[in-house]
Amino acid sequence: MAIATINPTTGETERAFTPHTAAEVQRRIALAHDAFAALKDTTFAERARWLRAAADLLEAEVDDTARLLVVEMGKPIAQAEAEIRKSAKGLRYYAEHAEAFLADEPLSDPSAVGASKAWTRYEPLGAVLAVMPWNFPVWQALRFAAPALAAGNTGLLKHASNVPQTALYLDGLFARAGFPEGAFQALLIGSGEVKAVVEDPRVKAVTLTGSEPAGRAVAAAAGAAIKKSVLELGGSDPFIVLPSADLDAAVETAVKARTINNGQSCIASKRFIVHADVYDEFSRRFAEATAALVVGDPLDPETEVGPLATESGRDDLAELVDDAIAKGAKVLAGSGAPERPGWFYTPTVLADLSEDARIVQEEAFGPVATLYRAEDAEDAARIANQTTFGLSSSVWTNDPEEQEWFIRRLDAGAVFVNGMTVSFPELPFGGVKASGYGRELAAAGIREFTNLKTVWRS
For domain 237-417, is the CATH number 3.30.1510.10? Predict the structure, then answer.
C-alpha cells in the first residue's frame, strides 16, 4: 500500500511520501535507543511537564489538525476536533497520575520472606514499537505514547500508510514539547518491514491495534524474539436491549454507537440483539433513525456520516452486505454505495440473517448494523457470545439482577450498562478471545511496558 494521503471524500491523492529507507529506519531505532538512556533518568515531574506542553500544542493547533484528520481518513469535522481534545486529556491524565501508578509497592510484612524490607518497583523497558491504525489516528497513537513516555520509555510509531501526515505531525509533537531528541519518532514503512523492527534487539516490546491477521503476525514475531506484546484487534460488539430498557435512550444511543466515526471503530456496537417483546418497536425506530442520518462532506458541520477511509474498506463492507442479502437477509434501511465521488456507503440495517452469512461472524467496519431477535436473556447472551471476538459490549436493562447476570455472562473486555462503549483514560481498555490481550489506559496501560522488579533486603 502506498504511503499517501488519498482524500476519501474525493478519491484524489493529496500527497504521496517516499518510504523511509532501511538505513533511515536503523538511524531512528538507534536514536530511540540512545534517547532511552537519557529519558529513563529524568524525573516524573520533568516528563509530566513535557506531556502537558504536548497537550497545550494539541489544543492550540486543533483546527488545523482536525482538518488534517478529515482529509486523511474522512471522519466528520466535529468528531475530529473531539478526538484531538480527548488526546490532550489523555496526555494530561498521565502527567498527573504516572508517578502514583508506578510508585514502589512495599510488602506489608517483609519478615514473612525473611527480609527487613521488600518491595516491587516498575521500571521502563526501552524503545517500544507501536503499530497503529487510521481510524482514530491521533487518539490511538497517543493512548500508547502518553503512558509509554510517562513511564520513561521511548516510542517508535509505525502508523497506517493512509495517514502519513498525521504520523509526521506526531513525530514532531513531543520534540516541540521538550522531550529529548528521538524520544518519539514515526517510521514511514510498509507492513512488510514491521517484522524486522520487532526483531531488532534495541526494540524491547511492541503494541498493535489493528486487524486479527496483523495481530497474529506481530505477536508471532514478538514471541519468537521473546518480547512483550499487547494486541487490540477487531470487535463485533453486541448491543443488547431487554424489555425493561428505556427504549428512547436505547434507540438514540444505538444509532450513534453504530455510526460514530463513520462506523469505523473496533468498539462500535455492531450486532443489535433485541428481546422479542420489544424487537418490532426497536427495529422500526432504529431503522428510521438510521435512514434519516445526514451523509455528506465530512467538513460540513451538518454531516453525521462521511466516507469510509479507504476504497478497499468500502468494497469489503459492500461484499459483506451483498453476501448477507444473497443469503436471505432483510434490508430495513440503506445498503449500497451512493452515486457520488469518494468512498461513501449508505448507513444500513439488516435483519433476519442466515447463520451462514459472513457478517454474522466477521466484523463489519462501516455503517452497517445487524439485528437479531432474542427469545430471552439466555438467548441474548448466546448470540452475543457466538463470535470469536470479545472486545466490549453494551447491555440495556433497568433490572439490577439482569444487569449483574449479563456482566457475569458476557465474554468481553468490558460491559457498558445503559450506555455505549467509550474509551476513557481512567479505565483499562482491551479485549479477550480474538480481540487481543493486554490492556491500554489507566494504571494497567502504563504498567504493560515496564519491568516489575522485586527487591529483597536482609
Answer: no
